[in-house]
Design brief:
By secondary structure, the chain is mostly helical. It contains 13 helices and no strands. It has one domain. Helix 4 packs antiparallel against helix 5, helix 5 packs parallel to helix 8 and helix 5 packs parallel to helix 13. The two termini are 28 Å apart.
Length: 209
């Protein structure tokens, strides 16, 4: 799929100008850790009436959390789980090794984070019920939209789009230093932001059906 270059470049410009308030982000995340995720009580009308504001908030929070955690899988999932009241903190903790599948060149972390959130949202709460068709269908839509936006679902391809090249940071200390020097902390947040926004939009579209 061909990515949307205007979407990526516009976000790069916006992020280049952003002043990251790390203290405020840390305080917000600390409150989440302390209080846990409040189970969602979906007010359909309120959500649909504030769609754009919610999408903007989810995208910004995913970017903020990625800048803080330096983990695109955890950050995208955190923003979604927090917004929609899904899962728990162990769900987020378990996503620790999933950026690029342990930085092995595998699937991009926001794909995994988004799929986790969609699974919690669309799957039957009764885990003895094994009809997963609804979750499959919405997950496929998510993958297609993510690939359309960023050109791929794989970490090396997305690094090339966001950073100009693939660094394979876990291969050597030299690679890691080059990755860190590439403004990866600032620009890799684009992927979890877009991924979280796409997943949130799919959830809200289902409420309008």
């Amino acid at each position: 799929m061909i990515p949307d270059p205007d979407l990526i470049q516009q976000r790069r410009k916006e992020l280049a100008a952003r002043k990251w308030n790390v203290t405020a982000i840390e305080e917000r995340f600390s409150r989440l850790v302390k209080n846990g995720i409040t189970p969602g009580r979906l007010d359909r009308e309120e959500i649909l009436g504030n769609k754009e504001a919610i999408l903007d908030r989810v995208q910004c929070q995913a970017e903020d959390y990625c800048y803080l955690m330096r983990n695109c899988a955890k950050s995208s999932a955190t923003a979604l789980l927090e917004e929609f009241g899904l899962g728990n903190l162990d769900t987020i903790r378990a996503l620790g090794p999933f950026p690029g599948i342990a930085m092995s060149g595998g699937i991009c972390g926001p794909v995994t984070g988004g799929l986790i959130a969609l699974g919690l949202f669309f799957s039957n709460p009764d885990i003895t019920k094994h009809d997963a068709t609804r979750a499959y269908l919405h997950a496929r839509v998510f993958i297609n939209r993510f690939e359309s936006a960023l050109g791929s679902v794989y970490c090396p391809d997305i690094q090339k789009k966001l950073l100009g090249q693939y660094y394979d940071p876990m291969r050597s200390m030299e690679n890691l230093k080059a990755f860190n020097a590439s403004n990866a902390r600032k620009y890799c947040v684009i992927a979890p932001g877009i991924g979280a926004r796409i997943a949130a939009e799919i959830m809200m579209e289902s409420l309008a059906e």
